[in-house]
Amino acid sequence: xxxxxxxxxxxxxxxxxxxxxxxxxxxxxxxxxxxxxxxxxxxxxxxxxxxxxxxxxxxxxxxxxxxxxxxxxxxxxxxxxxxxxxxxxxxxxxxxxxxxxxxxxxxxxxxxxxxxxxxxxxxxxxxxxxxxxxxxxxxxxxxxxxxxxxxxxxxxxxxxxxxxxxxxxxxxxxxxxxxxxxxxxxxxxxxxxxx
Length: 195
Description:
By secondary structure, the protein is an alpha+beta fold. Helix content is 23%, strand content 32%. It contains 4 helices and 13 strands. The protein is globular. Residues 1-14 have low confidence and may be disordered.
């Protein structure tokens, strides 16, 4: 079950402070076992499942092996993106070496090299639509969507003018060759479980 609070609660003004206040509210209302984020000003919550985490963990292990334990790899951490009130909480993202938090203690989307999302049925439209558009607008070099329902990964690279120019669909089990991207890695997917 997914909950989308679309009836946006308008807060004073349209500034960073009111957006931060929305996130504080989000942290208070998201029940245990759910993930919450703000996409286009609407709060979305979806349940976390075992399959979801198993796919994320398989990628996380590969990234840590390749880049080391000191690399900056985040799971379920707020990342603000271009567009109207886009405060995403990606399943996993990697930042470039030397990336530093901004004055508010948040990561800058400009330092993100890779975003990995595992879809939930309830929020898949966000991953394939608004979130993909925001990552492209933010020039995030690599955006990968894993779909445990279809057993496929959708690989988006070469962001330009707010869209990804290179798009591939691979089956679970096929390697994801990102050696020609800033990530410079081939991700194995044979351990990705299906729902």
